[in-house]
Specification:
The structure is a single chain. By secondary structure, this protein is of the alpha/beta class. About 40% of the residues lie in helices and about 10% in strands. The protein folds into four domains: about 5-100, no CATH class; about 200-350, 3-Layer(aba) Sandwich (Rossmann fold); about 365-540, 3-Layer(aba) Sandwich (Rossmann fold), CATH 3.40.50; about 545-630, Rossmann fold (3-Layer(aba) Sandwich). Strand 1 (about 25-30) and strand 2 (about 35) form a beta hairpin. Helix 11 (about 220-225) packs across helix 14 and helix 16 crosses helix 17. The longest helix has 21 residues, at about 355-375. This is NADP-dependent malic enzyme, chloroplastic. One of its GO terms (cellular component) is chloroplast. Keywords: Metal-binding, NAD, NADP, Oxidoreductase.
């Protein structure tokens, strides 16, 4: 047996990297054992056998290395023809076995599998003869077949599971399918279906799709991160599952959100899949139904809080920076208010962090408002805003609107906030409530007599824009919308809460109760509405417009921090993508069919701002940032294998 040292090969092999081999056989020491590659010099050889230290003596004495498909002896001499133990005793073994992607292993490797699309020469070179039917099918025909299959399912969760199975089987086909059918499949892999998937995640769990870091891993988080096979991570989406969409505390089952978000980072923003890492921080759950569910996959304890929680999160943030460097983007997702604001404030000055619920939602909604001005007239400062909901999303949107108004009018942000009012569960936020308010609500406490409910707040404030971020379904009642329509020719109504069941009102209700005069957008999609002979299309204020392109801009510029000005320019870039044709149909957001080009425009604007602010590290700055963004995007088309 020929041998050579090759630690880089070991790293690639153990991280799942698959490639054809043209070099001689290799042997090298690994922690706890010897890795021996048997090869006959042919390209595409596929057998790698890991032999533990107990076999070192045999190897030193010249014993041959037995390939996996040869006869071997186990259990003290019992012949094992099929590679299985035939003895009755239990044996402790170390499960180290790595296969270069050829033959059957290639068809089981989602990163490189092409199914029936393997060409004749590839089937010969990679030992696929007989493992596939004789027909060769191109990727486009595969997509046609899959869409036909997915459309046969009537239940959205079945479609979700079919998509997740495809992602585990053939990664490039999954992303090609999603990109080519984004408007139809986005509601399946993201809101609203992902909400139901999280609720039932324990029951439908099949394959590990990210890292689960629980309290059991405290003190070992860096070690856990190093268990992930991919080493060059650029984006991490992390949740602790306490506030999943409008569904509340789903604990460990919130993993569906990071998985879904990162699928969109790749499909819509072009971040390569291997650079994306979904993580769930499991500190328990206060959801009694889940704690009693036999299929629940998380810690069966109530949520850790206070110092215990803070220490785990700090260890996590430190480990991420140590393992992946300063330029890895950490996106916080669906943390409860009391943790979300604190984490963003604490780590915003030391890490590249972004909270999509606070910042991504704000930037998306601001873009919609900017484009809506072309329909309702005036500037942002000419309008009055009333929010139902004063949590992460509501206060985040309000603050970004105030910042943009401040920028446009050159007025202090404290002054522009006066045009924005918020209603929470206790009524209108006013100065007389100041002492009892959480810190993130205090900037919005203005002088006004107390108002208990939303409809009275609408009548008192007379807003031109009504925004729902409450997570409470059907709270924009007929009386509320009729009140908005009574003093606005074109009331702007945004029902942003997800999933669909939590939306403050439906598109049909908004158009019908406003007599067809509302300009409406929602967080989850709604079908077109026919009212008095007219067809109304509603826009979707979906964060998927924003975070994939925003993240791409940070990554391609090598940004080390997120700045509010980046959010503002991202909003401007998105608003500019709304055409007059879109506006004529009542749409204040562009169609998702062009989302990759939209993401490139957002990425270019964000990167330009990073360079302007001195926060970019990838130098020199490219001359054409839009073209550079497009060139950086991952493409899911199949590659030819040698």
């Amino acid at each position: 047996m020929m041998s050579l040292n090759g630690s880089s090969f070991l790293n690639n092999a153990l991280s799942g990297t698959s490639r054809s081999l043209t070099q001689p056989q290799r042997r090298f020491l690994a922690p706890g054992g010897v890795v021996a590659l048997s090869s006959n010099g042919r390209p595409g050889e596929r057998n790698v056998t890991v032999l533990m230290e107990s076999t070192l003596k045999e190897m030193r004495e010249g014993a041959s290395v037995v390939e996996k498909d040869s006869k071997s002896t186990v259990g003290g001499g019992v012949e094992d023809v099929y590679g299985e133990d035939s003895a009755t005793e239990d044996y402790s073994i170390t499960p180290w076995s790595v296969s270069v992607a050829s033959g059957y292993a290639l068809l089981r490797d989602p990163h490189h599998n092409k199914g029936l699309a393997f060409a004749e020469k590839e089937r010969d070179a990679h030992y696929l003869r007989g493992l596939l039917p004789p027909v060769v099918v191109n990727q486009d025909l595969q997509i046609k077949k899959l869409m036909h299959m997915i459309r046969q399912y009537e239940v959205p969760l079945q479609k979700y599971m079919a998509m997740m199975d495809l992602q585990e089987r053939n990664e490039r086909l999954f992303y090609k399918l999603l990109i080519d059918n984004v408007e139809e499949l986005l509601p399946i892999v993201y809101t609203p279906t992902v909400g139901e998937a999280c609720q039932k995640y324990g029951s439908i769990y099949r394959h590990p799709q990210g890292l689960f870091i629980s309290l059991k891993e405290k003190g070992k988080i860096l070690e856990v991160l190093r268990n992930w096979p991919e080493k060059n991570i650029q984006v991490i989406v992390v949740t602790d599952g306490e506030r999943i969409l409008g569904l509340g505390d789903l604990g460990c089952q919130g993993m569906g959100i990071p998985v879904g978000k990162l699928s969109l980072y790749t499909a819509l923003g072009g971040i390569r899949p291997s650079a994306c890492l979904p993580i769930t921080i499991d500190v328990g759950t206060n959801n009694e139904k889940l704690l009693e569910d036999e299929f629940y996959i998380g810690l069966r304890q109530r949520r850790a809080t206070g110092q215990e929680y803070a220490e785990l999160m700090h260890e996590f943030m430190s480990a991420v920076k140590q393992n992946y460097g300063e330029k890895v983007l950490i996106q916080f997702e669906d943390f409860a208010n009391h943790n979300a604001f604190d984490l963003l404030a604490k780590y915003g000055t030391t890490h590249l962090v972004f909270n999509d619920d606070i910042q991504g939602t704000a930037s998306t909604v601001l873009a919609g408002l900017m484009s809506a001005l072309k329909l309702v007239g005036g500037t942002l400062a000419d309008h009055r805003f009333l929010f139902l909901g004063a949590g992460e999303a509501g206060t985040g949107i309000a603050e970004l609107i105030a910042l943009e108004m401040s920028k446009q009018t050159e007025s202090p942000v404290e002054e522009t906030r006066q045009r924005i009012w918020l209603v929470d569960s206790k009524g209108l936020i006013v100065r007389s409530r100041m002492e009892s308010l959480q810190h993130f609500k205090r900037p919005w406490a203005h002088e006004h007599e107390p108002v208990r409910n939303l409809v009275d707040a609408v009548k008192a404030i007379k807003p031109t824009v009504l925004i729902g971020s409450s997570g409470a379904g059907r709270t924009f009642t007929k009386e509320v919308i009729e009140a908005m329509a009574s003093f606005n020719e074109k009331p702007l109504i945004l029902a942003l809460s997800n999933p669909t069941s939590q939306s403050e009102c439906t598109a049909e209700e908004a158009y019908k109760w406003s007599e067809g005069r509302a300009i409406f957008a929602s967080g989850s999609p709604f079908d077109p509405v026919e009212y008095q002979g007219n067809v109304y299309l509603s826009g979707q204020a979906n964060n998927a417009y924003m975070f994939p392109g925003f993240g791409l801009g940070l990554i391609m510029s090598g940004a080390i921090r997120v700045h509010d000005d980046m959010l503002l320019v991202a909003s401007e870039a998105l608003a500019e993508q709304v055409s007059q044709g879109n506006l004529d149909k009542g749409l204040i957001f562009p169609p998702f069919t062009n989302i990759r080009k939209i993401s490139a425009q957002i990425a270019a604007r964000v990167a330009a701002k990073a360079y302007e602010l001195g926060l970019a590290t990838r130098l020199p700055q490219p001359e054409n940032l839009v073209a550079h963004a497009e060139s950086c995007m991952y493409g899911p088309s199949y590659r030819s294998y040698r």
